[in-house]
Records
---
Amino acid sequence: MGIPELKKELHSYIDHADERFLKMVYAMSKEYKGSDIVGYKVDGSPISKNALSKRVLAASKRVKSGDFISEEEVEQEVQNW
């Protein structure tokens, strides 16, 4: 389903929704709009734009300094699991 179809279907849900549904959608929308969450960590916890930027910069520095393992090393580790 594309974005236009998704919006149309959501509008239909909202047009026919009861008060409980509307309050849930409103609360979720308000939280989403006021949030700087851009993703989630592996454990399911949210990550902010600022925290993600810091992680990306730290990872970039590690790679530039040679602090990483090769694909071959990863494949060897996987075989030992």
---
Amino acid sequence: MASESRSAAAPHIHTDTDDDLAATLDTLRARGYIILEHLAPTRTLDRINQELAPWFESTPPCQGDFYGWKTTRLNSVLLKSPSSHDLLLHPTIQALMSDILGPHCDCYQLNLSQAIRLHPGERQQIPHRDDEMWPCPKQGIEYMVNVLWALSDFTTENGATLLWPRSQHRTMPRDADPTESIQATMPAGSALIYMGSLTHCGGANRSHLTRTGLIFSYSLGWLRPYENSTLAYPPEIARTFSKPVRDLIGYRMHRPNLGHVEGQDPAIALDLPGNIDNANNLKRTLATVDALPPAIAEELRRYYAAND
């Protein structure tokens, strides 16, 4: 069974973050994943671990065969760890997301923030693909890309993530052949970036230590995200975040006209306090305003110029 197998360690495909972005993208698209070593500064990593420590201590373990029975998961990470915002907005990550997701949406979004700690004795997770949450044909388009930051060393013994290279290009069953998998071992501070269409799973923790990672998942902006960010980060919380973070968690409109509040960009709930009562309710109705991509706006202008 796959749950009893041991996989070879993943080759560190990319270890120099100053390399050409195009080469990084080529590797990511071809293999479905890439490892960027030591991408997070040590001081940032230390702050994140310190901020999350009390939350890990107070959070009960997961309940379920998918999430694991000896695993602790923290959601709403941006609230629990202000320092994690630096990883969310890391310029290398943003450049990759812009290239992979950007062509297929007006703006991409944060799909999930989750810190995960595998405790000793946790079994291997079932192989799966994260983009299965949207049960429709993808037509070769990536709906999401995950970034798993190593907050501790990921080793063969403590459950480093298992990956099936190039599996995004073919159909694979739940009992994916374990001999075709590799294991994403990497030092703390590294980032494993993998496509939502790649078959993968959490490894079994056979060590006496915990294994801790932080996932920021990004998806096309017109999809319903895994985490309901506008409830996880309501206006009174979100207005303390930087604008790039607010944009990623949904306080902006996705053109054409998706996600509005009173016909306008949802940022009005944050940036115009004179219009807000009790943080969430507008005191008055507002004019509904077009939010259109430039190409569609131009198409409308040409239509009315020819028909008025």
---
Amino acid sequence: MTRDDVRLTVVVATLGLARVERTVDDLLRSAADAGVAAEVLVVWQGQAPPAGLPGGVRVLDVFPVGLSYARNRGLAEATAPLVGFVDDDEAVDVGWVAAVLHAFDEHPYAAGVFGAVAPLDTDGIPYCEVSGEAARVFRRPSTPPWVVGTGGNMVFRRPLLSAIGGFDVALGAAAPGRAGEESDVIVRMLRGGHPLVWTPDAVVFHPTKTSAEHLASRRPYGHGAGAVARRRRDAGLTARYTASLGQSWLTGLRGRDRQRRREAVRTAAGFLGGLLGVERSESPRPVLARMPEHVAATIGGESIRPLPARYEPQPEFRYAAGPFTLRVLPGVDAVRADGIAVVSTVERDALWLLEPRTGARR
């Protein structure tokens, strides 16, 4: 198989869940059923290296910055003209690849295709049930992104997604925006005059949530929507989302559905926080578990305190460590030689810099 033979690259971003093996197996089975060559790329952000993945699957071991960062790294490594994204805990229908390719063939003007999301089980509340009986084409820039599709089942023309800058690394899971990275791409695509298609035939299955899990997810999702509206200066999106929240709360009130009212309130609180820019930007402590031994030895017994993180254009995490500032730059593969760093090393997809802290006393 040569690169010219591959029509589709599918990126699966994961923090190291064992379930990614099932998702990968489903994708390979779907490609075989369609009779086409497809590339599966697992973007791995776990501590231990992956095991048990089939031969031929490409694995990219990247620094754990967040979902958008991982997807962008997968986008940069993809070789096919189409690049798709599914979640690492999803089951993929055997007809998924054929349906995606058919949708692009049937709509050659489409910049991207979104598919249906169905519950994987009957144990709880659907994660994000997106269904319908007919394909839909979206062209208007004012289209609410949440009616187009969801990030767990989307495919784009790779050159176009790259041209608009991929996913915003400040949005999505594990980033300050918490969610909304796919909504942001949808908004930018439609604003740029690039139509998007939703098809009922490309189906993935997502595990359901308990009532408590579903309620807990509302605030992050609302926060992501607010962050998208703020970052894109989209007053129309703000008005439509506010109206949908009000309608949801009223529906819960009329139906005496306390759970629905609570979900609407949680979502509204998150939306307001995202809209106002109330975002946690503290550098994550779990990053320190990856610290190279000689960096840790230089810091010694000094306490380490997270400082504000920067997510764009180059993600950077910063920490105060006694007389030092520890800077971690994911995705940088060359040691800087600027004469400032006490320690400078590249390990596991990140540049680690230990620099004297201005005004610090040893």
---
Amino acid sequence: MTIRAIDLIAATPWAITAEELERICTIAVRENDSPDAVAARLGRPLENARTVTERDGTAIIPITGSIFRRANLFTEISGATSVEVLATDIQAAIDSPSIARLVLHIDSPGGQATGIGDLAALIHASPKPIIAFVEGIAASAAYWLASAADRIVVSSGAMLGSIGVVASFRPEKDAPTKIISSQSPLKQAGPDTEPGRAEIQRVVDALAAVFIGDVAAYRNTDPQTVAETFGRGGLLVGADAVAAGMADAVGTLETLLASFKPSAGSTGITATGTTMTDTTTGAPTIDRAHLAAHHPALLAELLAEGAQTERARIQGVRAQAIPGHEALIERLAFDGATTGPEAAVQVLAAEKALRDHHAAAQATAAPPVNAVLPPAAQTDDSPQAKTESAAVAILANYRTATGTAA
């Protein structure tokens, strides 16, 4: 039996606006259309790649279009966002040492309820500040995600809300007769019977309760306040959403990004007790003082790892020593930055400069009385031979470490 897209849509609870769900259903029932035809009708290119951009330590992650549980051809051609791709993007930004904060750039009517709660929990638990910026709409599942951020900033015309869950059903045309086991009267319950409708309502209400409970927890309020003042399933615009407690400020993306940059004469950081706080996000700055006060065991582990890494670096630098450059090696070993391969480059450069100097001195010196060197000076035990041998060895080590061709 072939499973149709419309069947999957009907079997899935949605946290989405009614208009967008109707649009998705309309596209899904056109089963004979090619992906190119659907893409053309939607006015979007087929290659709809998601991107994450970085600006001055801020990762900007777009959440646009309808939200689906997994990435597939439908998400590609409809300009949608998938939960699995979004979770990967967010975790990558959290793990990146170059990222200080994340901005979720949201313009979405919502989507499938499946997986949204887990993704919202990931956002809320982030060790780095996450700010949601809404430009356009953050409805239903999209607002669920936005509410989990540390702050919500909205454009003046942005629409927030549509908090709730909906289940959609379409009558099956020429549907086959179904015989359901008598032990499972609510299996495949439909709205055409009173018990079936009551069962569907129970499931939808239970999912909505989870949605409202999460929003209440993330926005530091109670479920009753969310149910009564956060639009009651409708949408609030800009400043009205802020006044209701659904968002924190009205602004633009550029002013939000500019707020992360310290003003002249200010670091953007304030101290409260033993914790440093970023005044632009309200999030604690994870520095040595914060770790010492709140995570001493972790600090001790990090210091031990740092000491071990520094010892290995020093040993790597000292391994590049050749006679005549001991002072240079010691200076590089304790500058706290130079690695073994970098030390090899500097030592070889110093050796070349020394030889060039000796060659120039010999060229201008008076001819020796006896140009024949004593036999002892020509043996392999001479200082010159030892220096040349060490230089050859260090050059070989450098080429091996850096992959430089001979």
